[in-house]
Design brief:
197 residues, alpha+beta, Beta-lactamase Inhibitory Protein, Chain:B, domain 1, 31% helix, extended
């Protein structure tokens, strides 16, 4: 039997043909992988995956935002209800430590540095006895500026009208009192619910 006839017979076998094609595809794939740059495990958890694509990261906001203005309203001797009115409900309350309230705030956003703050309030009975807060609590404007990743070009937008601009506004139109329209079609009166038995 000649060599050509042996090769033709080999090519007609479907099981060997599929195996050969699979082996060739595997070798080509491995050859292509050797051309890719080497990446360590940290490149996937960094800002870019495989050094090429920046994935979308979900913004994670947890806890209570407490600003300097809010904390200035809280003084030792206040009741729990007064503290809750000023700061909101605490993020953490513990059954085993009922005299302790924890106000924790964390935020992780793409394009901004992560923020972590922890304020601890200690109560003696129903009265606030101690406040443990970081010295670098932001004001309301500082907090808004720190989470604002959208940088507006030009001047800041105007949020309030001046007193002169308010006076220059037209007076609201007077609306005449209207009566309810008469119903169209038959109407029924139902007996009171107490009368039905």
């Amino acid at each position: 039997m000649s060599l050509n006839s042996q090769i033709a017979r080999f090519a007609r076998r479907p099981s060997l043909r599929g195996t050969t094609l699979g082996l060739m595809a595997g070798l080509l794939t491995l050859g292509g992988c050797s051309q890719m740059p080497k990446f360590d495990a940290l490149s996937v958890s960094g800002d870019k995956v495989l050094g090429l694509v920046t994935p979308y990261r979900v913004e994670i906001v947890q806890g209570n935002v407490v600003t300097k203005e809010q904390l200035a309203q809280v003084k030792p001797g206040m009741t729990r209800a007064q503290v809750r009115d000023a700061l909101g409900s605490p993020l953490l309350t513990d059954v085993f430590h009922e005299a302790r309230w924890d106000y924790v705030f964390t935020i992780r956003r793409q394009g901004a540095a992560p923020q972590n703050r922890h304020i601890l309030l200690t109560f003696d009975g129903d009265k606030l006895s101690k406040i443990d807060a970081p010295d670098d609590l932001p004001t309301e404007k500082e907090f808004i500026a720190s989470i604002n990743t959208l940088k507006v070009k030009g001047a800041e937008p105007k949020l309030e009208l001046t007193e002169e601009e308010r006076k220059a506004l037209p007076a609201p139109a007077k609306v005449a009192a209207t009566t309810a329209p008469e119903p169209i079609g038959p109407t029924r009166e139902y007996p009171p619910l107490e009368a039905r038995r």
